[in-house]
């Protein structure tokens, strides 16, 4: 199945989706957003990286920033923070450049490496888009973390690729139905910029009346 551009989702949404399906739906379906210190720092960091006019060319290396990518097969589009084209004997040809080049995407994140796989999934999605666009193989990439100032190399395994496909398939299903999943409260909700919009503690076990009464009680203390 191939999607039309009108139905494309944002590649970056896979990170929101993997972290919390409800968060993704609030942002990408209901168009709700709120800033906190984490999102603000991340935005500043990406502004520094995302300069499509800034291109570096050194011996054996071409660096492209804010490179637009998309995939008809997955129905997604977005930008890669950085893509390095490295001179390689088994690479691809680039218009206007001599030699063959391999493709190495680099995603920038403000924090430190995570135990969960949201960042790796976003990088893998970018790699899969690049493969489709350039008819090439992208077996590896990296995530650069602002807190450690280091790159973490990521192998784009078949397991990661299948998880990317599964996530986007589910995301398209939710988007077509305009469906926002119900809240599933966890400790991670405390760091979410949308917690005041999502109201994660307002679950099945608590009525709206009880929730409002509890909040008013806390304010009076």
Automatic annotation (TrEMBL):
Coiled coil: none
Family: Belongs to the CRISPR-associated exonuclease Cas4 family.
Function per UniProt: CRISPR (clustered regularly interspaced short palindromic repeat) is an adaptive immune system that provides protection against mobile genetic elements (viruses, transposable elements and conjugative plasmids). CRISPR clusters contain sequences complementary to antecedent mobile elements and target invading nucleic acids. CRISPR clusters are transcribed and processed into CRISPR RNA (crRNA).
GO BP field: defense response to virus
PANTHER family: CRISPR-ASSOCIATED EXONUCLEASE CAS4, DNA REPLICATION ATP-DEPENDENT HELICASE_NUCLEASE DNA2
Alphabetized Gene3D superfamilies for the sequence: 3.90.320.10
UniProt keyword terms in alphabetical order: Antiviral defense, Exonuclease, Hydrolase, Iron, Iron-sulfur, Manganese, Metal-binding, Nuclease
Record protein name field: CRISPR-associated exonuclease Cas4
Assigned EC number: 3.1.12.1
Keyword Metal-binding among UniProt keywords: yes
Keyword Iron: yes
Pfam families found in the cross-reference section: Cas_Cas4 (PF01930)
Organism superkingdom: Bacteria
InterPro entries: Cas4_exonuclease, CRISPR-assoc_prot_Cas4, Dna2/Cas4_DUF83, PDDEXK-like_dom_sf
Molecular-function GO terms, alphabetical: exonuclease activity; iron-sulfur cluster binding; metal ion binding
Cofactor(s) annotated in UniProt: Mg(2+); Mn(2+); [4Fe-4S] cluster; iron-sulfur cluster
Residue span(s) of domain DUF83: 12-199
Cofactor note: Mg(2+) or Mn(2+) required for ssDNA cleavage activity.
